[in-house]
Amino acid sequence: MPEHEAKLAKFRIPAAGWTRIKQTADVLCIAHKGQQLLSADSHPTLYMAIPALESPMGAWEKLQSQQYANDPVMRKVLDAGLKKMGDYYLKMEKSDAYSIAMILTPYRHYQTAPSEANRTPITDDTELWGDIWDTATTAPPEFHRYLKEEPTLRPSAGGQDSLTYWYSHRATYPDLSRMAIDYLAIQGSATAVERVWSSASNTDTRNRNRLSPARFEALQFLKAAYRKDRKNALTTEEQKAQQAARLKDIEADMWQEEVDDDVIVLLDM
Fold first, then answer.
1. Residue limits of the HAT C-terminal dimerisation domain (predicted)?
2. Where are the beta strands (DSSP E) in 115-251?
């Protein structure tokens, strides 16, 4: 065996190693789906923060008690992940913003998600509002009227999105519509902001280091507008092709068995 092949052989991953890698990837994909829910930059996402955290936690707990009940390694991995998510959950409970965003989402109205089925039902409207108002009597009447309404249809089912809803109901619920402007504008994650910074770094190159702040800001707005117009101009077929290409990049084809076998064969050559 040539010397370089002998050195590479030390790094060969056995079949059991590939199995472990796939198990780890499957666990991380569960959390990744939750993160993707909060990564949009064109509509409010904060109302999904609690469900996006509780859903992976529930899935991991199920894996821990069923599929990996007799696997100490994966149980330890899941323990670490659940502990970290639990820390985030405790931090979220210290802020009213998450619950308020859920309430102010007209097609949500603080309905419980499947992962929240074991929660104690909240029957008092004022209990939902926490400490925003000092007493029940200080809560505006429009708040109680709003909660008595049936949740609207989701945008995917033909209903209004949150921003359109509150704009069209700004006269009916003046106080709540102003609160919606403040709370629904909060990003569910830093992904959208990171995209802006990444785009800015491509604009602010060494060849353009004399751009004034005002001109730099204008360029960023133009870039965003052009990008949005290009996306809106795509046909349905082009959008599907774009989505398929993105999914192909995201999905881990390397975890498929045929790829695993090919890699092992190459290392054996």
1. 142-224
2. none
Angle between helices 49-65 and 15-37 (to 10 degrees): 160
Give CA angle at 260 (254, 265), nearest 5°.
Answer: 135
The rounded distance, in Å, linking the Cα atoms of 41 and 190 is 10
Question: Could you tell me if 219 and 203 are in contact, meaning their C-beta atoms sit under 8 angstroms apart?
Answer: yes
Query: Which residue, 53, 56, 47, 51, is CA-closest to 29?
Result: 56
CB-based contacts of 172, cutoff 8 Å, min separation 6: 142
| Closest C-alpha among 19, 120, 153, 114 to residue 73 | 19
Domain positions in the chain are 13-189, 191-233
* Position 172 pLDDT exceeds 70: yes
By three-state DSSP, how is residue 133 classified? Answer: coil
**Residues 160, 152 contacting (CB under 8 angstroms):** yes
Instruction: Please give the biggest Cα pair distance in the chain.
Output: 84
Closest CA to 88 of 52, 114, 44: 52
Q: Give the predicted TM-score (pTM) of the model.
A: 0.66
Cβ atoms of residues 79 and 63 within 8 Å: no
In this predicted structure, what is the pLDDT of residue 251?
52
Distances from the Cα of 67 to the Cαs of 54, 55, 182, in angstroms?
19, 17, 43
C-alpha 25/C-alpha 36 separation (Å) is 16
Cβ neighbours, 10 Å, residue 122 = 11
pLDDT digits (tens, 9 = 90+) for 203-248: 877 777 777 888 888 888 888 777 776 656 666 776 667 666 655 6
